[in-house]
Amino acid sequence: MITLISIPRPGVGLTDDAVAYLEGAGFTPEEWAKRHDDADGMWRGDYCGCPDDRCVGNHHAVDADCYCLISLVEEAMQERRAES
Ligand SMILES: [Zn+2]
Ligand SMILES: [Zn+2]
Predict the structure, then answer these.
(1) Between residues 38 and 47, the one the model is more confident about
(2) Quick one: CA dihedral 52, 53, 58, 64, positive or negative?
(3) What is the superkingdom listed in this entry's lineage (predicted)?
(4) Which of 12, 45, 78, 80 is the most buried (most CB within 10 A)?
């Protein structure tokens, strides 16, 4: 699903897979950055989509799906549902 061996998209700092996953859940990369305290919309987390910039290789293997992103997106969607 999220292949972390792919290269971060220039200017975004996320892989195409991470961007596609976020967009599939209805979040733009900018919204995702702002949600994680990057008020200017610039992503400073890891390229897999986890706000911890040392996620790849620490939270999970380089070639594994990022479960941080999956569960954070799940949480964000639940929050958004609760708001509306
Ligand atoms: Zn992580
Ligand atoms: Zn990750």
Answers:
(1) 47
(2) positive
(3) Bacteria
(4) 45
